[in-house]
Every structure is written in structure tokens, then in C-alpha cells.
Design goal:
Elements lengths: L15 H4 L25 H16 L10 E6 L1 H10 L8 E7 L18 H22 L2 H11 L9 H11 L4 H12 L7 H7 L4 E6 L7 H15 L9 E6 L5 H4 L1 H17 L2
Parallel strand pairs: 1-2, 2-3, 3-4
Helix pairs in contact: 2-3, 4-7, 5-6, 8-9
Length: about 280
């Protein structure tokens, strides 16, 4: 299980105990986020994809190339994008039982987008300096507990009762680390124009059942994104459940973080999906 931007494995606090009653569950923090290391380096989608692939190979599958173990990978927001990117990777494709996307982020292809003109180096330099200053100020403001709580309540629009001091602290504490501000800047500037791979291309390469477990009241990633993912999947892999390339949509009465806002509904959806997915394994 992989959390979204700025969150940690603590965000799965109401999911891990329930899912672990039947399955072996792992929840790790992506590099640069939560309680993982925050090295000063370039950050892009491939960094997190490789982290997930390596963890799957080395820890879950114990380095066994012909392992009979099957893995379902789940993620929310940026973690959702990372989950589907990893599931499409040839290194672990054969071991994937299912891909679970909870309000996953990602950029779609824009066929009408015009080609960018060559940038002016002077304008680029000035813009970068202004951008760094603005992002630095934003980070200082955003990591304040009151602001974190405000943001959380905004993205838990149906039921914000799970927005408590422990959740706020789980987000603020990693942000106080020495390198956190620089990592924040590098992630924002690198991914501001979208991830490396388009969602369209990733979905085309998915060879496993996919669950769209979507908080339909998300103020950040609208249900239209899930609609498009579902449409693309059916265009690439067909309708129904022929083979393993099928998709299922479960609507959750929640916002951007359905797994924490409505954990019971999400846990039920995940358990039912995994059972369905394992039938075809």
C-alpha cells in the first residue's frame, strides 16, 4: 500500500488491521515522503516505481523469479499512480494479482496540446528563482498543524471525523526533517508538468485486474479521471472479464482519501476485489 503526496503509511491505519486478518499486508513510505529517507536527488515517477518493484521482488517475493506468490498493489493519489506504474512493469507483471487505485493521480495524453516553443534561458532563470521562493514560502505555511488540518478537512468532505491530531502529526513530523523542504521543492518542480509516463500508456500495459475504488466527492481528482481510466481500460482490453485484463469500479461516498475517510467501505471493496482477482490466478 502506498500513500499520496506528503502522507505516510500511517494513513492506512484503519485498513491494515482489517486486511491483515486474511492477507499479508505491507505499507511503505515512498522515498522522500513520510518516514522514509529524504535524500537530495532528482525525483520523478520512475524513482518510486523502481522502489515499489524492488520492494516487491526483494521483500515480498524473496528474490524468487519463479515465485508462486501473487501480489496486489494498492495506492492513493500519487501512490495510486505509482501502484499502476509498478504493476505495468515487466519485472513483476507475472506476479501481480491485481492493481487497486484509490483516487489515483496521473496525467492523460492531450491530443490537442501544442508543441512547446524553445524556452528563453533568461526568463527560465528568473522564473525558477521566483518559483523556488514561492514554493519555500508555501512549504513553511503548509507544514503548520492548523493548515494541515484545514487541508485534510477539505479533502474529507463527507465525514471528517477521522481528521484527528494523530493524523495531523503523522504528516507534520516528516516535514520537519532537515531535507524535507528541498525534497518538497524538487518533487513539485519535477512533477508540476506531469509524471514521466501518461496514464494512457500505463493502462495499456496493465495485464492484471484493476479496481477503481473512488471517492466520488474528491475536490482534487474528480470522478471524471476515474471515468477516463475506465474508458481507456475498456478500449485497450475489452469489456467484461475475459482473461485477467478486466476493470471494476466501486464508488465510495468520500473525498480524496477514501481509505481513511470511509475505511469500512474501502476495506470491503478491496477484499471483494482481491477474491475475484485470485479466482483467475
Amino acid at each position: 500500500m502506498y500513500s499520496g503526496f506528503g502522507a505516510s503509511s500511517y494513513h492506512w491505519r484503519y485498513n491494515i488491521p482489517e486486511l491483515a486478518r486474511k492477507y499479508h499486508v505491507y505499507a511503505i513510505d515512498l522515498l522522500g515522503f513520510g518516514f522514509s529517507d529524504k535524500p537530495i536527488q532528482d525525483y520523478d515517477a520512475s524513482v518510486w516505481k523502481d522502489q515499489v518493484v524492488d520492494f516487491t521482488q526483494q521483500v515480498i517475493l524473496n528474490g524468487e523469479e519463479d515465485s508462486t506468490k501473487k501480489v496486489s498493489i494498492a495506492g492513493n493519489s500519487l501512490g495510486g499512480y505509482t501502484a499502476m506504474y509498478a504493476c505495468s512493469d515487466d519485472r513483476i507483471k507475472d506476479s501481480i494479482a491485481g492493481c487497486i487505485l484509490l483516487n489515483a493521480a496521473g496525467r492523460f495524453k492531450d491530443l490537442e496540446a501544442e508543441e512547446k516553443k524553445d524556452p528563453n534561458p533568461i526568463i527560465e532563470a528568473v522564473s525558477a528563482a521566483i518559483q523556488r521562493f514561492v514554493i519555500a514560502c508555501s512549504f513553511i505555511y503548509t507544514k503548520q498543524p492548523a493548515r494541515i488540518e484545514q487541508i485534510l478537512r477539505n479533502v474529507y468532505p463527507i465525514d471528517d471525523s477521522n481528521v484527528d491530531s494523530e493524523l495531523v502529526e503523522s504528516i507534520q513530523t516528516p516535514a520537519l526533517e532537515d531535507t524535507a523542504a528541498e525534497v518538497f521543492y524538487r518533487v513539485i518542480t519535477k512533477n508540476g508538468s506531469g509524471p514521466q509516463a501518461y496514464v494512457d500508456d500505463i493502462i495499456k500495459e496493465l495485464d492484471c485486474p484493476t479496481l477503481l475504488c473512488w471517492g466520488e466527492s474528491d475536490p482534487w481528482i474528480r470522478p471524471a479521471a476515474a471515468d477516463k481510466m475506465e474508458k481507456l481500460h475498456r478500449e485497450f482490453h475489452g469489456e467484461g472479464k475475459s482473461g485477467n485484463k478486466w476493470i471494476k469500479r466501486v464508488s465510495i461516498d468520500a473525498g480524496h482519501c477514501p481509505h481513511d475517510e470511509a475505511p469500512q467501505a474501502v476495506n470491503t471493496a478491496i477484499l471483494e476485489f482481491v477474491e475475484e482477482a485470485l479466482v483467475g490466478v
